[in-house]
Amino acid sequence: RFAAKEPGLAGKTTLEQAQADMFVDEIDELLPKLGAVVFAKDEAVKAEKAKEVDKLIPEKLAKLEKLSGANGHLVGNNLLWCDLVLFNTAFNIENYKPGTLKNY
């Protein structure tokens, strides 16, 4: 969050900054859980964690889609750090399960 402020990626107003923070907080739950699936060594553990992630991905993406802005960005009219976090997470989701994002 701090690093996003210097180059102007945090948001133009305090409301945009709060909205960007909200999106990142919502997205933030996915990446560690996705990593736990990808890097699990035990197949039983991996399968159990995959069930949780496979349920969580559509829930989170549907919520993000519903709350996102209409101008191609999550918040406002400019690229913000929340857009970059979503891009990174979406990239990892597609690597985990190709085709997952085709409906969003």
What features would you describe in this structure?
It contains five helices and no strands. It has helices at residues 2-5, 14-27, 30-38, 43-67, 81-96. It has 104 residues and is mostly helical. The model has no long low-confidence stretch (mean pLDDT 93). 65% of the residues lie in helices and 0% in strands.
What is the 3D shape?
Answer: elongated
Average of the residue pLDDT scores: 93
Distance between the termini: 26 Å
Summarize the helix and strand pattern as letters. Answer: HHHHH
The stretches of 5 or more residues where confidence is low (pLDDT under 50) are none
Percent helix, as a range, is 55-70%
Count of DSSP helices?
5
How large is the radius of gyration?
15 Å
Major sheet, described briefly?
Answer: none
List the helices and strands and how they pair.
Blueprint: H1 2-5, H2 14-27, H3 30-38, H4 43-67, H5 81-96
Helix pairs in contact: 2-5, 3-4, 3-5
Summarize this entry quickly.
With 104 residues, this protein is mainly alpha-helical.
Record keyword descriptors for this entry.
single chain; 104 residues; mainly alpha; 65% helix
